[in-house]
Design goal:
Elements lengths: L10 H6 L4 E8 L3 E8 L2 E10 L6 H11 L8 E7 L2 E6 L5 E2 L3 H4 L2 H18 L11 H13 L18 H10 L7 E4 L8 E4 L2 E5 L6 E4 H16 L4 H8 L7 H12 L1
Antiparallel strand pairs: 1-2, 2-3, 3-5, 4-5, 6-8, 7-10, 8-9
Length: 265
């Protein structure tokens, strides 16, 4: 069964899925671990484990997947629960390879354009009017202030290099002082980056890791998506992404939402 030094698989879960071979799909230290559950040589489920209490919770992710299921290509939730200090989420597989597959990374311009079209499709398809999940600025800033008050924002470790000079208090103050005056609302993915997008034949065929899906300014996704291109592909692809998506760079909202990304979880 799966397990490691910081996140052990609950005994009940091991028993429930004991008839499968557990293959490690991906792991993020202190965040989550995902197993591919294989039987008869075929992946039947993906099982994500995370510490109970981690934000965003797997229960929240399951709720968002269930809402999005009839609207977008997202996995079907087959099981969600918790035992002790560990929560889990079991989902069905989808077609495609994630955006970090070597075959896709080897064609970075094509990958960039595919990811941009995938995000545009997400924003155009998911309906704001009926989405019950909110991450507009009032809600987002309230969440960030709560994390600061609880001592959950750590200088250095939680910040990307652009923001490591800031103290937690200074980072939140900067976020407050640079708040955009308006929002261009869509249903945002919340963590749109290559590992969370499945691709087949030049098309986004699946969206993963939906724990932060909610109504927000489209630049919440655009700022993170273009940032993640640099982490995964290197510099030089941001303008291509924005051009393919159909916008010009907003040099006020991009740094604002990138700083928020470092502060929300």
């Amino acid at each position: 069964m799966g397990g490691n030094a910081w996140l052990q698989t609950p005994p009940g879960l091991s028993q429930a899925y004991g008839g499968f071979d557990w293959e490690l799909a991906c792991q993020y230290a202190e965040h989550s671990v995902v197993y591919r559950l294989v039987r008869g040589g075929r992946a039947e489920f993906y099982l994500k484990l995370a510490p109970t209490g981690h934000y965003p919770s797997l229960a929240a992710e399951a709720d968002r997947m269930r809402w999005a299921r009839d609207r977008l290509p997202v996995p079907e939730v087959v099981d969600q629960g918790s035992e002790g200090f560990v929560s889990w989420l079991a989902t069905t597989p989808l077609a495609g390879r994630d955006g970090t597959s070597p075959e896709l990374l080897g064609r970075p311009r094509e990958l960039t354009q595919t990811l941009a079209r995938g995000l545009r499709h997400f924003h155009e398809t998911a309906p704001v009017a009926t989405c019950p999940f909110d991450f507009r600025l009032d809600r987002a800033l309230e969440h960030v202030r709560g994390r600061l008050s609880a001592g959950l924002i750590a200088q250095g470790r939680d910040f990307h290099p652009e923001f490591r000079h800031l103290t937690p208090e200074g980072a939140v103050a900067q976020l407050e002082s640079t708040r955009p005056p308006s929002e261009d609302l869509v249903v945002c993915h919340g963590d749109y980056c290559p590992p969370n997008i499945l691709i087949q034949d030049g098309t986004a065929t699946g969206y993963l890791d939906l724990g932060e899906l909610g109504v927000a300014d489209r630049w919440w996704d655009l700022a993170t998506a273009t940032w993640s291109l640099e982490w995964n592909l290197g510099p030089g692809f941001e303008d291509l992404f924005l051009e393919e998506y159909g916008v010009t760079a907003d040099h006020d909202r991009i740094p604002f939402y990138r700083l928020m990304y470092d502060l929300v979880c």
